[in-house]
Every structure is written in C-alpha cells, then in structure tokens.
Write a structure and sequence with these properties.
Layout: E1 2-6, H1 12-21, E2 25-29, H2 33-43, E3 46-47, H3 51-55, E4 60-63, H4 68-78, E5 87-90, H5 96-108, E6 112-115, E7 118-119, H6 121-127, E8 130-135, H7 138-148, E9 152-159, H8 163-191, H9 196-203, H10 211-221, H11 231-248, H12 253-267, H13 278-287
Parallel strand pairs: 1-2, 1-4, 2-3, 4-5, 5-6, 8-9
Antiparallel strand pairs: 7-8
C-alpha cells in the first residue's frame, strides 16, 4: 500500500519502519526535516519535505504527532492530496472532541478518519507490539487493520469517532493509579528497611502483580527514570482526561491528585523523566533533613 506517515519521533519512527519492512511504500514527514531524512536513510523509506508530499496519492495516512493542534494542521494540509477514499489513522493521543471534528471534515472530502491511540510505549513501538484502540468507521478500520498489524499486537474497534480517544483516557487513568500505588509501595518498603528485591519476589506472583510492577519496580527502587513516556506527555494526557471528566460528570479524584503529583515531579526537574518517576517525589522527601 502507498502510505504517508507524519511524525517520526520515538513512537512514530519505529512504527513507520515496521511498515517499510512489511513491504509498503512509505513516505515519512517530520516537523524536524533532519529526523525524517535520517529515518529514510536508515529504513529505506522515502523522505518527504512536507505533509502534502507525504500524502500525495497515499491510500493510507498515519499520524503520530503531538496534540490536537498538530493533528488539525496535518490533516488540513494532507486532505486535498490523498487518494480518493483514503483512510487517515491517527495514533496521536488527543481530545475526543477533535477526533469527532476531524472525522466530519474528512467525510466531507470523501475520506475517512479513524482515531486510534496506542498503548505499549516506546518498547511496544520498537518491537511491533502496540495495542490500538480505535474509534470511527468500522469498515475503514477493517480495511487497514492488516497494515496496522505491522506494529500492533491487537487492534480493537471501540465505537464511533472519539471512542478510541475515550478508551485511551481509560488506559491513562488506570496507569496513573497503578504507578502511584507502586511508587508508594516501593517507598514504604525502603523506609521500613526491607530489601526491595526480596519484597518484589514476595509479592509479584500474587494479587499485586502488574505490568508496571514487573517492569518498573527495580528501576524505581534504583531511582532510574529514563524509560520512555515522559511526565510532560502524561500530564498532557491527564489534562485531556480531566477536561473530559468535567464535561461528562465522571468523578476522578485520584487521577486529579496524581496529576498534581506529576506537576511536583516537573518542578523537581523531571519533565522528561518517565512516568514511574512518581517514586522520585517520595524519595526526595526521605532524603531531605
């Protein structure tokens, strides 16, 4: 398939690489041209200097950019250049509102927009093991799902436009609570004088087990926070969650509290630390006289 790909960062770069490796013709665009040029040289994909060039004649346009405004800008520029009946798949985490707006705009030009945020982080993108939660036209999603499987282990249609983004919000709510609980557990074990490795061995095969525990307990205890999804991005996502909750009436007291804790991590200089750095906030309290 002829594919345009916009956004070649830590997530988009590996995803687009998997598409090239699967035999598709991929034109990659990035706001930083040097990054797109390096991606093309490393993967055999085609370097595109503009969104329009990446989208020209593409049957599928994939987005993995920063926020609502970025998605709007890319889609507006791309729409006139896409092949007739093209599908736009947006892996950016955005508001559900903008997903619905852009889906309507795409329909007006006889294209289809699918909001399809992902979970799995940088490791999932590198290893082709992302989970995709999608909203929008089910038939269009089915048409491109085999292509998305190049970098995904699961693709789930959740309902009409915006449903993918709402599901990603559910994901971020769950992660925020789990990581805070894990940070407090590691903190308590340290303050209580326990061997944190032994504590992990004792509890990790029981009801407390989670992906976050298996992958972040040891690094949290060691104060290592360089493992992908940054605090700045998590705060962006939680901001979307809390905005949606204010609109729909959901009560998210813990999520709001964890968002505040992440703001403290930012104030500590941890804006680019990964989300497990909630532990640093507690470690900082222990170390202070």
């Amino acid at each position: 398939m002829k594919i345009g790909f916009a956004g070649l960062g830590v997530m988009g770069g590996p995803m687009a690489r998997h598409l090239v490796q699967a035999g598709h013709e991929v034109a990659g665009f990035n706001r930083s041209p040097d990054k797109a040029r390096a991606w093309a040289a490393a993967t055999g994909g085609r370097f595109a200097t503009t969104v329009a060039e990446a989208a020209e004649g593409a049957e599928l346009l994939v987005l993995c950019v920063g926020n609502d405004d970025d998605v709007r800008q890319v889609v507006v520029e791309a729409l006139p250049h896409l092949a007739a009946d093209a599908v736009i798949v947006d892996h950016t985490t955005t508001s559900a509102r903008v997903a619905r707006q852009i889906a309507a705009a795409a329909t007006e030009q006889d294209r289809t927009f699918v909001d399809a945020p992902v979970s799995g982080g940088q490791a999932g993108a590198e290893n082709g093991q992302l989970s995709v939660m999608a909203g929008g036209d089910a038939e269009a999603l089915a048409r491109v799902e085999p292509i998305l499987k190049a970098y995904s282990k699961a693709v789930k249609h959740m309902g009409p436009s915006g449903s993918g983004q709402l599901t990603k919000m559910v994901n971020q709510i769950a992660i925020a609570g789990v990581v805070q609980g894990l940070a407090e557990a590691v903190h308590f074990a340290e303050v209580a004088g326990l061997d944190t490795t032994a504590a992990y061995d004792a509890i990790s095969k029981g009801a407390a087990q989670s992906w976050q525990m298996d992958n972040r307990w040891k690094t949290m205890a060691e104060g290592q926070f360089e493992f992908g999804f940054a605090v700045d991005w998590m705060r962006k996502d939680l901001g979307l969650v809390l905005d949606e909750a204010r609109a729909n009436g959901a009560h998210l007291s813990l999520t709001a509290l964890v968002d505040q804790f992440y703001s403290e991590v930012q104030a500590m200089g941890g804006a680019r630390w990964d989300t497990s750095s909630l532990a640093a906030r507690l470690q900082d309290r222990v170390r202070k006289p």
